[in-house]
Automatic annotation (TrEMBL), chain A:
This is 1,2-phenylacetyl-CoA epoxidase subunit A. One of its GO terms (biological process) is phenylacetate catabolic process. It comes from the Bacteria. It comes from Alkalicoccus urumqiensis (Bacillus urumqiensis). One of its GO terms (molecular function) is phenylacetyl-CoA 1,2-epoxidase activity.
UniProtKB/TrEMBL annotation, chain B:
The gene is paaI. This is Phenylacetate-CoA oxygenase subunit PaaI. InterPro entries: Aromatic_CoA_ox/epox (IPR052703), Ferritin-like (IPR012347), Ferritin-like_SF (IPR009078), PaaA_PaaC (IPR007814), PaaC (IPR011882). Signal peptide: none annotated. GO terms for cellular component: cytosol. It comes from Alkalicoccus urumqiensis (Bacillus urumqiensis). PANTHER family: 1,2-PHENYLACETYL-COA EPOXIDASE, SUBUNIT C, PHENYLACETIC ACID DEGRADATION PROTEIN PAA. NCBIfam families: PA_CoA_Oxy3 (TIGR02158). One of its GO terms (biological process) is phenylacetate catabolic process.
């Protein structure tokens, strides 16, 4: 889902540890072979994957929380069933991905528990869109339709990723995300064809989500925020396209649909440049983006508080399931 | 007893129809509130695997409520969406024990939910649900039996899940055991309405909605749950009220307000 990876404390990739092994590894990458969990891999590759996949996994889990706000409120029984199925899928994706990340972290003696602690301490970021508030039922539609739509663009770009366990998890995740986008589209269609109040509710949600959707793919270049790692992911054939290419693909696919529903986009400068064959748009506030993913977004604190409460209130359960005594915090 | 094989035949037998509808409302309203309480837990379960399992069970349970509300719709009641969203608390037949909040706080703000309550309540409920579905499946009213049979295709997995949790936690730390025992004691004060037919047991039996008497079913439940839990030998009391007799507290009002918030914002709109 997410391609924006920060360097921890600005650290540079470590020197290649074994040149012969590295050359052999890169040959496998170039040949399109899949790397498996037990295979030799350079540190840079392993660490890039850990950051990418743990962030993807934890974002799926945090991503269930904004929609959870609307699960009980879904206005019909079928909408209730649909959104319940969706949030359950998201949790399932989180679980699949954390399992993949756990295997990668094993050589460092780190586990899922560490990831959860990193989330609570702010060291492990989650996706910018899941820091945002959900104000009306239309948000449930827009999240499914456009946020999951953006996720599909970004994830299908990695369906041939060089790391086998991630690549296989993505096959299933992408298949399910298509249902999510259809679920969201169905909610949006009902609102777009509904009463004036329903239409206004939908337009307000689209207006509010627009900057977050642009931010979704990350900054266009490292200069923007000083910390994009997109070049590394393409070098190792984890993904194919750049952030901007993905954003353009998203705009290509969804803007015609947005306009055909009679909706507008809150950007007067938005236009398609026929010569360059790309969309021109007003840049979102990338400083705000940095603040959001530093857990200073509109709902960051409340969403993290939910995970913290789950962690605290279930301490006795973990202690009960564990063979060893759990240390009291 | 002659069996009633079709919806049409049931519609012509008013006494059997009323009995069947009461049984179905008890079942659907229980599942609806249980699914709501379950959905409040999303993202707050003890671990991710449990979140996946619990949300799957919760979704299935809503599916059961939908199936039963649709059956009621076919039997001449309002459309299923209205039965779920538009009926005030005073018309609902759900058990007050199932309506009880998951813990202090709300699902949006400071939810201090208690896993011991979830485990005990859902184990006790799913055991009762199985027993009442089984007796309906063996009853002589086909439209009711068919719904029960369909739900029974997946419900045993739900029961197995909560039974596993109960057994595992009771056999772990003294702290976990103590927490579960407190919730068991609470259930024996409050869950009496859950395992009751609200004074309709005899009518259910006479009309073939159920194949067994209410007393026999309650004893079957007691025997089964006592084989797993350290629970009293007597049936639970109804100290928190009796939902089967439409006596509910403010917990249900709160829950329904949330569940119906968008629906009631415009009842005529298509959502």
């Amino acid at each position: 889902m997410y391609n924006f990876i920060e360097h921890v404390n600005g650290s540079e990739p470590e020197a290649v540890e074994d040149e012969a092994k590295y050359a052999q590894f890169m040959e496998r990458i170039e040949n399109g072979e899949k790397i498996e969990a037990d295979d030799w891999m350079p540190e840079e590759y392993r660490q890039t994957l850990i950051k990418l996949i743990s962030m993807h996994g934890i974002s799926e889990i945090m991503g269930a929380l904004p929609e959870k706000e609307w699960v009980p409120k879904a206005p019909t029984l079928y909408r209730k069933l649909g959104i319940m199925a969706k949030v359950q899928d998201e949790m399932g994706h989180g679980q699949l991905l954390l399992r993949v990340a756990e295997d990668l972290m094993a050589p460092y003696g780190r586990s899922r528990e560490d990831l959860m602690m990193d989330l609570l301490s702010g060291d492990l970021k989650f996706h910018n869109v899941f820091h945002m508030e959900t104000r009306t039922w239309a948000d449930a539609g827009v999240i499914g339709w456009l946020v999951d739509g953006a996720a599909i663009i970004s994830q299908t770009n990695m369906l041939d990723a060089s790391y086998g366990p991630y690549q296989r998890a993505l096959q299933r995740i992408c298949a399910e995300e298509v249902f999510h986008a259809q679920h969201g589209e169905a909610i949006v269609m009902a609102l777009a064809e509904g009463t004036p109040e329903q239409k206004a509710m939908l337009q307000e949600a689209v207006d509010r989500w627009w900057p977050s959707l642009l931010m979704f793919f990350g900054p266009g270049s490292a200069e923007t925020t000083g910390s994009s790692k997109q070049e590394v992911t393409t070098k190792y054939k984890i993904r194919k396209s750049s952030n901007e290419e993905l954003r353009q693909a998203f705009l290509d696919k969804y803007l015609p649909r947005v306009f055909s529903l009679g909706l507008t986009i809150p950007d007067d400068t938005l236009r398609y440049d026929e010569e360059k064959e790309q969309w021109e748009y007003e840049q979102p506030d990338w400083n705000e983006f940095k603040q959001i993913i530093k857990n200073n977004g509109p709902r960051s604190a409340e969403r993290l508080r939910l995970r913290e409460l789950a962690y605290e209130n279930n301490r006795w359960v973990r202690r009960a399931l564990s063979n060893e005594p759990v240390v009291q915090a | 007893m002659t069996s009633i094989d079709t919806v049409e035949a049931l519609l012509e037998n008013n006494e059997a129809l009323q009995a069947a509808k009461t049984f179905l409302f008890q079942l659907a309203d229980d599942d609806y509130i249980t699914s709501f309480r379950g959905s409040e837990w999303l993202g707050l379960a003890p671990h991710i695997e449990e979140d996946v399992a619990f949300s799957s069970i919760t979704q299935n349970t809503m599916g059961h409520a939908v199936l039963v509300y649709q059956t009621l719709e076919a039997l001449g009641e309002a459309e299923a969406d209205k039965l779920a969203h538009a009926r005030p608390a005073g018309e609902r037949l759900s058990s007050v024990y199932l309506e009880k909040p998951n813990g202090p706080g709300t699902y949006l703000d400071e939810p201090h939910y208690d896993w011991a309550l979830a485990v005990i309540r859902l184990y006790l409920y799913e055991t009762w649900k199985k027993i009442r579905l089984q007796t309906a499946a063996r009853g002589s009213i086909r439209p009711v039996a068919a719904a029960a049979e369909k739900i029974l295709m997946e419900q045993p997995y739900h029961l197995a899940h909560w039974k596993m949790w109960a057994v595992q936690l009771l056999d772990s730390t003294p702290e976990a055991k103590e927490r579960l025992e407190e919730r068991i004691a609470e259930a024996w004060r409050e869950a009496g309405d859950m395992i009751s037919f609200g004074g309709h047991g005899q009518t259910f039996l006479e009309n073939g909605v159920t194949a067994d008497s209410e007393e026999a079913l309650q004893l079957r439940w007691l025997e089964e749950v006592r084989s797993v839990l350290p629970a009293p030998a007597e049936l639970p009391l109804k100290e928190a009220g009796d939902g089967r007799r439409k006596e509910h507290g403010s917990d249900l009002d709160q829950a329904l307000k949330t569940c119906s918030e968008v629906f009631t914002s415009d009842r005529e709109a298509v959502w």
